[in-house]
Amino acid sequence: MTAQHLQDTVTLHNGVKMPWFGLGVFKVEEGEEVVSSVKAAIKNGYRSIDTAAVYQNEEGVGQAIKEALEQYGVAREELFVTSKVWNADLGYESTIAAYETSLAKLGLEYLDLYLIHWPKAGKYKEAWRALETLYKEGRVKAIGVSNFQIHHLQDVLKDAEIKPMVNQIELHPRLTQQELRSFASGHGIVIEAWSPLMQGQLLDEPVLKAIADKHSKSTAQVILRWDLQSGIITIPKSIKENRIIENAAIFDFELSEEEMAQIDGLNQNVRVGPDPDNFNF
């Protein structure tokens, strides 16, 4: 079912409800920039915030959450906060320590979702064991992975006690990842898109502009609507309040089957981020 409202949720395979739509803070500067963007998002109805240890802005995200809870009357339980363990910390003990560090920086007692950021060869299975421990101890509500290809997921599933609940991947109309999406769906793993707007590279795409004009929407809004109608969680980044509001104004129109197919047809398997099979930093 397509999300009908900004705060609509998808139920993960463990019963936890995750918002379909959220704010990503990749490359948002620590300090005032990240504080103001996260607060603007929460003030305007966003309930999901996605950060990561390597973004180096968890303290600002935490400060924004604290201030937003006080100023806007939002309860912590209404928010869905995600962070990720970086490659240098993959391993059993080091992943648990990294989780503690992220929690401390965020000033939170738990995370709603904790992800392995990249499938670093030879390291991610021990990290997954650590995530399972954190989950079983009730320290995190849901666990998952990011940038995992089918073969990485197969490798994890072979020995996992608990299946990943989410796989956050680069996904946009130039990289639709259909095979990976089908595999994940078959295993009850929800797909979440990072860089849904291809870092702005799609905003002048003629097919998208024509669809946008027809609906009196922006190309960004069309892409984000396509995500939701495709059953994909999406977390666009913005530091401007007007753009944060605009990105979420996608619940008052619907793309036709033909328009959805046109957007699917833009796929070229082109990435703006690293190839997960060749990223071992």
Automatic annotation (TrEMBL):
Pfam families reported in the protein's UniProt record: Aldo_ket_red
List of catalytic residues: Y55
Residues noted as binding substrate in the record, renumbered to the chain: H117
Residue intervals of the NADP-dependent oxidoreductase domain: 32-267
Gene3D superfamilies from the UniProt entry: NADP-dependent oxidoreductase domain
InterPro entries assigned: AKR, AKR5G, Aldo/ket_reductase_CS, NAD(P)_OxRdtase_dom_sf, NADP_OxRdtase_dom
Assigned keywords, A-Z: NADP, Oxidoreductase
Site entry (Lowers pKa of active site Tyr), positions: K84
Molecular function terms, GO-annotated: oxidoreductase activity, acting on the CH-OH group of donors, NAD or NADP as acceptor
Similarity field: Belongs to the aldo/keto reductase family.
Protein name stated in the entry: Aldo/keto reductase
Originating organism: Paenibacillus algorifonticola
Phylogenetic lineage: Bacteria, Bacillati, Bacillota, Bacilli, Bacillales
